[in-house]
Every structure is written in C-alpha cells, then in structure tokens.
Amino acid sequence: MYRYDQYDHQMLSDRVAQFRGQTRRYLEGRLSDAEFLPLRLQNGLYIQRLAPMMRIAVPYGLLSSRQLRKLAFIADHFDKGYGHLTTRQNIQFNWPALEEVPDILEHLAEVEMHAIQTSGNCIRNTTTDQFAGCAVDEIEDSRPYCEIIRQWSTFHPEFAYLPRKFKIAVCGTREDQAATQVHDIGIYIVRNEQGETGFRILAGGGLGRTPIVGHEMAGFVEKKHLLTFLEAILRVYNREGRRDNKYKARIKILVKETGPEAFRDKVHAEWEKIKDGAMTLTDAEIERCRSFFTAPPYRELPETSPELEQALASDLLFASWYQQNVRPHQRSGYAIATLSLKETGIAPGDISAEQMNFVADLADLYSFGEMRISHQQNLVFTDVEKGQLYALWKQLSTQSLGTPNLGLLTDLICCPGGDFCALANAKSIPIAESIQRQFSDQALLQDIGELAINISGCMNACGHHHVGNIGILGVDKKGEEFYQVSLGGSAGNRTSLGAIMGPAFAQEEIPAVIEKIVAVYREHRDPGEAFIETYDRIGMTPFKERVYAKAD
Amino acid sequence: MQKLIKNGSLVDDQWVLIKQASDAGILQALPGRDLIVPHRFWKFFQDDIANYWGQVTIWLDSDERVTDIREPLESFPLIGLNFPVFSDGRSYTNARELRENLGYQGEIRALGDVLRDQLYYMHRCGFDAYSLRHDQDPDECLQAFDDFATGYQASIDQPQPLFRRR
Fold it and tell me: Do A157 and B125 touch (CB under 8 A)?
C-alpha cells in the first residue's frame, strides 16, 4: 500500500496543528459556529443527535493491520468501543469529544491516517472496487490512480469551497463493483484499440434527492491527462454550480440544467487551456504510485488445495461460507475472502474494538497484513491461500465475522439512521434487523440468491437505497416514521434506479412486505435467474398486486 | 480602518473601496482618491472615469467572471475579487484564471468575508493582498500563510506540483 514520505508526513502534522488551533479558537469563542462548521467538516467532524460523529478517511478502502489496531485503540480510548464502516469505505466513530479530536488526529497521523475531507463541500474520499489488484476481470489496478487523485484533491486550494460535496469513484474491472455511474465523477479504466489503458470519464451522476446516472464526458483520456481533465470538470462546477439552493447544488443538477452535451463542451473548452500544463502526469509519477501496489510475496501454489477440498466435503457450514463469501483471485492458489459485518442483531457495518484487534491479527496471519473496506460495509481479506481458508473461517466464526451471507438478502447496506444521525427522518438499523430476523434460514437465503437490500433513513441516501434491488427509504409522515419501498435498482454495470412501489409502510409491516416481494420472485423466476433479472422481465405489477392486495 | 495584508505584511491602504454606486456623483464626492469600483460601474461610467484625476480600478463579485473583462488587463493596477461569504468559493477560480490563463500581473485583492482560515488557499490561488474582515486579528492572519509547508498541486505560488519536485 502507499507509504508516506517526508512531504506527506509534513502535510499531516501541519494539518493536525492547524485544526488544533482552529478548535482552540472555537472553544475560546473566537470562531463562530458558522465559521467553524466547514473547518470541522473538512476534518470529518459532524455534530450529531447525541454527540459529535467523526469520520476517518480510509483512502479507497485499503487498510493495514497496524492502522486497524490504531482504530481499535481510538474506539477504546475516545469512543464507546466500536466503530462503523461506511458506504464510502471509511470508518466513523459516534462518540468522540470535540476537544479530544485534535488528539485523535495526532494518533491517526502516526499510522498515516487522517480525517481530511471526509465531509464538507469539497472532494471526498475516492472509492474503488474492494478487490482491486486481485480481481480476475481486472483491466488494470485502480489503486495507483486513486492515490494520485487523493493527493491532487487533498487541500486543493481552488476546490475547498465547492457548491456541495463531491465524490469520485474509479473502476478498474469489467464488472463494476464501485457504483461508479452514480458518482459526481465516475472513472472507468478502459483499453483502446492500440491496447493502451486510459480513462473513460463520466460526470453528473449521484444519488440523494435527485438520483441520476452520470453522463460521458470523454470516452478515452490518456493517463497523463487524468488530473487536468478532472481539474477542468471541477473548475466548471465550482464556477457555475448552484449556490442558491443546497438541494440543487450538486454537479448532477448543473449537468442536467446545462444539458450533458453543453456541459461536456464547457469541460473540453476549459481542458484545452490547462491540458499539457504542469499538472500533466509524468511517467515517473505514475510508476512511483504503481510501485506501492505491487503483489505481496505470494507463494507458488497449485490452483487446487487438498486441504480446502477436504474441508468443503466434511463441513457444510464452511462450504456455505465458501460458496457465498469467497471469490476467485488472479493468482493461482489464492482466494479473496469477505468478512461479513452483517450478523443479525448487530447494526450493519458496526465493528467492535475487540473485533478490530482480532481482525488485525488474522490479517497478519492470513492476508499479508492488509485488508479492504467494501462499500457494502464489509471487510475483505484479498490474499488468502486456499489451503488456509478453513482455518481462517473457524477463527472468524468465534467472533461473529463468519456469517455466510455476502451478496444475499441479509447482507444489507444500511446508514446509521435516526438512532444516531441528526438528518434522518426515520430509524434504519431496526428495519435491517427485523428483515434479517425474518430471513434467518440459510437454505432459504441461498435459494433466494443474490439480492441487494439498501436502507436509507432519509432522502440524502447514505444507504444508497435507489440502487438497491429492493430499496427502503425512511420518510416522515406527520411526525411518524414510515418506509417507502422501491424495486429494480442496481449499482453494477447496468446501473438502474429503483421505482417506488406505492404508499409507504409502517415499520412493523416491512418484514412481511419483503417476504411477499421475495415470494413473487420465487414463483416467477426462470431457473438460474437472479431477483433483478426476474424484475426486469416481469416488471413491477405482479409485486405491487401482491404487496398491496386487500385481505379477503 | 480596514486592515490590509499585502505581500506578507500589514500595510496602509491607499485605495478606497466603493461597494455600490449607481451614478458618477461618487467621483465628485471623493476627489483625487484612488478608487476600487464595481466592474459594472466602470463599464457604465467610462467617460467620467477618464476625466477623474485619481486612479480607478475594479472589483468583481463572485458571480462575475474575469473572462468577461473586455478592457486590457494592464489598465488595472489591482483587481478586487469579492467573497460575499467566506464559503463561496468562486473567487478562487477567478483568481486562478486571472493569473494562469490571462497572465495578469497586477495585485489581486481579496475583499469581503476575508477570514484567517481561508488565507492560505487564497494565497495559493494567486491573491497577494487581503482586505481583512474588521474583526480579524492581523497578527494571527499573518501566521495563516505558514499553515502548510507545501501542497500537492501546482499553484500560483508554486507552479510545479509536488510530483515534479519530490
């Protein structure tokens, strides 16, 4: 993974000192709430319902065991002993004290971590495929480019006060795992006819109140032009994005109101002015960044492992975990294992300090000391020897980390919701739990197969409900919490936004509603057809008729 | 009196800022003083300005664009860029365009809601004079330019990005 040099370290310690000064001036009453607000947000600090919430950046979701141990230490000493993995591959703490935040930042800096630009109207943490560097369908490892974008976007002097937040995703695989099309900027690594890799760049996608799929700004941008092209998009947005209405300030609204074609022309006109300028990437810089993401010291292993085959034959529980949570690897004899943080009864994405330390030890033992956070709020060991999967799984099972539900209905994506968040209209964690309880039978879950349920507690859509096969959105109806259900969303290559079924439901109705939706799918599916495929074929009507049928 | 930081130190200001003016009478009211007037005013009262015997230059609000200035930029010894509120980031882009794309060499002065914690970014985007909001502590503001030893990007104060220097 990327390692800091003296410049990176210097910038981080400068940042800690700067924020310490800002916090002191705020506490002394010399900075107003309004003036402190963007400063604290750009250090990941929200004031929430119960306490401040602090979001720590995990650049493109990549984390070392040393860093995870530090996060465990912070959870224990500055929080209530747990953290929460987010859909932007970050981690957040719900209970730090404001005056201790500079100390937390100092601890983080020791392990090359920070909370820079994890919130606020600036460029946020760049996300990517959690299997980058190991996925079998990879065109090129996206992480070096994510790191290049991280450095470019960090403290960018021109873009610190954008009209609204700005999110970038990079996808280096054929099968998009990064929800790339619903980002302010989505970047696909592509290969041209000459066999060179470059970038296809989209802009103006997003979720929130107005979900929109991004528009193509360029079909192929040479690698060296990556940053100048991004800078051109940002410059048009910073200048022209709406600042009169917070809900119309995202780039997607600007692209829509300008028209995708006209917006594209403006970007290209801007790009012409700065293309080939100082921000043009050098081969040396690309190589430098690539050098941090080389393969770990893999062993030469055969594709199959007798230990694995034997365990699969003798332990059915392990076999079902293997089937659900393990993915193929580029390298012979290795596999990618996902540690589910979706055990029933635990808020999706929550992880205790004890689990963090435990996972860090396992990462050292089984996966070269590194792991990823996925945007589905799970942890991933990308480089496990097949012959060690069984031993790993046995360990995971002792700490509620071996749930075999990756990609299944109970692997819900869920925001913190009304239990923690000041913006939420409704709770989301209890909804997730009630659904998980309803579907506790593993055989049934596996029979249902791949089905993404996404839950957001308000229309800001942190749970990405628009792109859930089943999306659940908390709404406020005269002070009461209700839930609107949508069907047909998808975040992959064929990104689509879900359609709302009809009137919203009360909290207690939701498990039965999901059960009816699933029943319609199972009755109508063709052999081997996933939920989303059946939905695409038969449409909303059969689901709607069943769910809203009057009792006889 | 308004506190002005210019080229890294606190200086006396020779210029009078005209925030709003709808007729040329303002020129008679301040005979001989050096004035910063709204760009719209400058365009509208060109003849009156030509007959005025002090210096006159312009400022732009954040919703105006420096690329819309039709006059030769050398006519302006300074160009003011306004921050109606510190969280409005458009003047950063205007400053950068002035320096980088239009090659403007004169003074670029930050006006309006100019606060300590934004000075470093302003400096990197090409501002070299800062008319501080009245409640700002000038000594504290002078320290803001040292908040960071270096930055990753190419900027006006450092035309080479870090990746070309490290």
Answer: yes
Measured distance CA(A401)–CA(A379) in Å, rounded: 9
Do B152 and A157 lie within an 8 Å CB cutoff?
no
The DSSP annotation for A417-486 comes to GGGT-SS-SS--HHHHHHHHHHT--HHHHHHH----EEEESSTT-TT-GGGSSEEEEEEEETTEEEEEEE
pLDDT of amino acid A49? 66
Domain boundaries, chain A: 6-110, 127-290, 306-367+378-397, 413-547
- Which of the residues B92, B98, B146, B150 would you substitute to probe the A interface, choosing the one with the greatest number of A C-beta atoms within 10 Å? B92
Helix (H) or strand (E) holding A545: helix A541-547
Specify the CATH number of the domain A127-290. 3.30.413.10
The answer, yes or no, to whether ipTM is higher than 0.95 is yes
Chain B hits for A278, Cβ within 8 Å: 154, 159-161, 164
Please determine whether the domains at A127-290 and A413-547 fall in the same fold group of CATH. Answer: yes
Per domain, the residue ranges of chain B are 4-164
Report pLDDT digits (tens) over B39-79: 999 999 999 999 998 999 999 999 999 999 999 999 999 99
Range B4-164 has CATH code 3.80.10: no
Question: Which of B92, B120, B149 is facing A158, going by the closest CB pair?
Answer: B92
Chain A residue with the nearest C-alpha to that of B121? A157
**Cβ-Cβ contacts under 8 Å, B147 against chain A:** 14, 18
CB-CB: which of B65, B125, B163 is closest to A158? B125
- In CATH, A6-110 is 3.50.30.30: no
Does residue A413 have a pLDDT over 80? Answer: yes
**A26-77 pLDDT tens trace:** 999 999 999 999 999 999 998 866 678 999 999 999 999 999 999 999 999 9
Q: Which CATH superfamily is domain A413-547 in?
A: Sulfite Reductase Hemoprotein, domain 1 (3.30.413.10)
